[in-house]
Design goal:
The chain is mainly beta and 416 residues long. Helices cover 9% and strands 43% of the residues.
Length: 416
Amino acid sequence: MDRSNGNLAIPATNLASNPSANPFTNSTDNPNTSPSVILQHFRPWHIGLGIVTIGAIIITAMILLMGESPKPANVASDAEQQEKALTDQTSSAQSSQNDRNPQNSNLVNGNSDASAKFILVKEIGNSGGTVASNDNIYGVSLSPDGKTLAIGTSNQNIELWDFQTNQILQTFRGHKGRVYDVFFSPDGTKLVSGSDNREAIIWDVKTGRILANLEGHQERVYTTIFSPDGKMVASSSSDSTIRIWDVETGKQRQLLSEKSWVYDVSFSADSKLLVSGSKDGAIRIWDVASGKVLKTIVERGSAVRSIVYSYDNKLIASAMEDNTVRLWNVSTGQQDVLTGHTNEVHIVAFSKGDRLLASAGADKSIKIWSVKDKTLIQTLTGHDRGVSSVDFSDDVSSLVSGSLDGKVKVWQRSRK
């Protein structure tokens, strides 16, 4: 407020002759102050001002005594909030998160899984530790009998190696682009592969002959897998489609359409359901026979780079670009978030029996998790670039990893 305003100015003569007239002078400073002097300045509106002031003090005190401070808001990204929604054909429920933060990369939690460690025993390839192609590795797959290892490379070829002797058996040539995925049939007699030249091919493992060219995708093919009954192949692509193929005829059975690139798919153990993970974060469960969506676990969120059903069909594991691994309860929709990776996670794989889960990605590490306890058992390091693929042997005695550094490493399980 400007105190030079004429209405507030006080003549100097009055201030000198009557100090009590100065509103900025405390009454205790004047020993001659008396009640009569105070009454001279009293006005009726002073009563109203006093009542208002006392009321404000009372209200403020009540707020301080009875009020409750708000709880801190949970900070979460839009993707995490969106991923909490679990919707099925009859109902929708809010999924609960249970973040796990392992404190030690070699955590031992006392169970039999934690007591079994994987150690590096060899590298598949020549004396330099690289496969014959000496190129980026995108996919690795062990045959069901554990004797043969298939390797998909960026030089358009597929190499088959004797897993025990470390000798190359044969090279499949036929793709015209980088081979992103390789997968053995349940009986080990066939191999299916997909490449970035829109191709999916079924091979005869013994002869290397092409049994079927699966034609239809308009963009790169990320995933090619056999159904557990061996009768179908599922492929996913950046053309936003999933295609189901008949192994015997090579003909397309179903065309499933998504809204963005489909990075990965996985069959349920009975071959009746298929789960898909997409670039836009969508996770859906499809009915294979009808081609219809049965359940949308997530509509949008962090990109899903890999997805896989557990062998008992109770869980779905997903590898996320937000550096997490997520375990989804198929029945309830509850999710457990496993943290520890420091970069995008690109691959997940259950061990047979569902006791262990392996994850790997751009941080060059492989992590082994206890599925039961949702805890980290071990971190495997040694690759010089991102790890693109992992696969357990059926007896869970070995784990194979392939990397963009051109190396395939074999890790063997040993009990202490």
